[in-house]
Amino acid sequence: MRRDDIIKQLDPIFAYFHLASGFISALADLIAGSGYESAVFKLLLIRLRVLQVLGVEAVKQKEFESLSGSGIFSMHLAGQGFNLRVLYGFMPDRRPILLLPFFERAGKKATDYSDRIQEAERIFKKEKELHSDGSNSNE
Asked: CA-CA distance, 133 to 88, in Å (whole number)?
């Protein structure tokens, strides 16, 4: 599936969520042409529904976890041929904001994604500042 087609399909999925600037493009870049786009979509829909319904309490579910004291959380999407993480937080209005998607690599050293957490924290801070100014960052 082409990148532009992926973006068109993802757009309505994210209607409830805040999105960091560039989130949809980054996710589309990760999965475009991979052959597992539909599997990622199915799993993403399931995870997002859990996140929408449970909010912060989603971390009680197996594929969700809290990563830092600064309000960064992780959603895990794994299937045959892919192993993705989506880092997210919660905006002042309590809606989740999807911050940063990336491939999680196998192996002890490779699963340390502290650099990604720091990047998500920077994005989160910026997005909260934009939100407090009345801006909406959805693509």
From this structure: 20
pLDDT tens figures, 47-98: 999 999 999 999 999 999 999 777 999 999 999 989 999 999 999 999 999 9
For residue 51, is it left (φ>0), alpha (ψ between -120 and 50) or beta? alpha
* pTM of the predicted structure, to 2 decimals: 0.85
- Pseudo-torsion of CA 56, 61, 64, 67, nearest 10°? 70
Of the candidates 61, 65, 85, 63, the residue with the CA atom closest to the CA atom of residue 73: 65
Joined together, the tokens standing for residue 136 give: 């909406």
Tokens of 106: 């196998």
Three-state DSSP class for residue 111 = coil
Distance, CA of 104 to CA of 112 (rounded, Å)? 9
